[in-house]
Amino acid sequence: MQAHKRVSKLSKKKKAAVAAASVLCLAAAGLAVFLWWVNRPRPVISGVQAHLTVYADDAPQTIRDALLAGVTAADGDESFAVDVRILSPADGAVVEAVTPGEYKLLYYCVAAEKVTATSALTVKAPDTTPPTISGAKDQTVRVNGSISYRDGVTATDDTDGTVALQVDSSAVDLTKPGAYKVVYSASDSRGNTASVTVTVTVEPEKTQTAAPAREPAGSGDSPGIQEKLDSLCAEILDDILTDGMTDREKAEAIYNRVRKIKYVATTPASDWRQNAYNGLTTGRGDCVQYSAASRALLTAAGIPNYELQRYGGKTDHYWEIVYVDGGWYHFDACPTSSKYPIRCFLLTEDEVVAYSNSRTDRPNYYIYDHSKCPYEVVQSR
What we know:
Elements: H1 2-39, E1 44-46, E2 51-55, H2 60-68, E3 72-75, E4 78-80, E5 82-87, E6 101-109, E7 112-124, E8 132-134, E9 139-142, E10 154-157, E11 161-162, E12 166-168, E13 178-187, E14 193-203, H3 225-240, H4 247-258, E15 262-263, H5 272-282, E16 284-285, H6 287-300, E17 305-309, E18 318-324, E19 327-332, E20 344-347, H7 349-358
Parallel strand pairs: 2-7, 9-14, 15-16
Antiparallel strand pairs: 1-3, 3-4, 5-6, 6-7, 8-10, 10-11, 12-13, 13-14, 17-18, 18-19, 19-20
């Protein structure tokens, strides 16, 4: 019995020792975990810029994306999510909606909010000012010549500085005389766009723009007609033209003057100059006199012109093409039927064709033999 009691006492002592040892082990393990937690490696936030700028009219998600662009948090090979708060510089309160002004930024690791980084933020007022395009101007070049569209042309923005300049010259055909549009455009980082349109005039070779050659005085059946016509044209031009007029303005003044002739069917002379003189002095005539009078005044004014004749049909018709504004255009001062009115002043090929097609009585009204015309009329506007 006494032996049994001694064994029981020894067993209790062992159990107590084991329990004490267990407690010590647990304490040691807890201490180890605590020390690891205290001394554990922490994520490092990187990529934070010292100062950022956004605009007040940016969408909230756009602002957020801009603030977090390139910002990361990592601990060795392990990455962590990063977020950012916009803070008031006055009291440090979180700002949900920004207005123009200065703010603080607090970046933090989502898994460990004590891991932070700071930055500064400027919120600018909305930018609605487009870039300024400078140096774009109208240019003139000869057929088959070369042209520099970008020379001396710049695009600058009040915020972005120099911005990319776009040039659309796709409408220009340097192989054909005419007036063509070139569009310059530029956009800034905020999407504000500016554009400037200029005109490139492609001129024919000098030999192409010469006015019709003067016929020798006294030729044909009208002796001395050249001198009389020259004097008459000089008198008329002195009355209807003024200093500083462009060729277009001169051509229109001549057009309006010839339109004063009253349409009367006549028997034409064999010399075009006589027809011009008769139409301008008598104030009467048909398309022959209108065309001849136009030719005489245009030539005297130094405006290149060429007479066209209707092709096909049962009736003749004569009118001019003139070289104005860098291209050849139709010019017909002769009045038309009141049923089919038209003011044929500097019309394009498409416009006279459309008019001809509208005439059920004379669908060939302005149709001519293109193979006999040495010049190409501007096709369309």
